[in-house]
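User: Probable nicotinate-nucleotide adenylyltransferase, Nitratireductor mangrovi:
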Amino acid sequence: MPYVERGMAVGIFGGSFNPPHAGHALVAEITIRRLQLDQLWWLVTPGNPLKDAGELAPLAQRLALSEKITPDPRIKVTAFEAAHRIRYTADTLELVTSRNRGVDFVWIMGADSLASFHRWQRWRDIMELMPIAVVDRPGSTLSFLSSVMAKAYSRARVDEDEAPLLARLRPPAWTFIHGPRSSLSSTALRQARRDED
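Assistant: Predicted structure for Probable nicotinate-nucleotide adenylyltransferase:
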């Protein structure tokens, strides 16, 4: 786990990053700025239980590629889930909060994940563990109105103008962040590679 100090505001941006791309880097930059984060943990997961593991590049390769596209020193590329043999986000966030008392964390995810968020293992526990920032993605802008999570936690939604306060709020609390969007997707990049072969 990256080193943090009490009082810091830290974003956790998890994903398989298979492969990482400029769209992911854009999400990281936007959230550091809009949430006024001291650090952002770019958490490369060993795998995603909701996705096909057959296409997953080796963890070391995804880590190296992630480090290559994240020059900002506030971004800490890590894969600590693998060392702890963690599969589910709720377990990751419980570990992070128990080991880092006095640090204010925010879970960061793209709006494209919001539609299926209610299928995540213990998704309601995630909502109760730490605030969440949902970042706009092409084709997913309206997900913050229609998703199961958005409807179930509509009263916990924080206005985007209040995003800098999000890390300091007691969960459940979430916001939807609009801004520059990238049409890049890891799925499309993998398909393009297969088409070249």
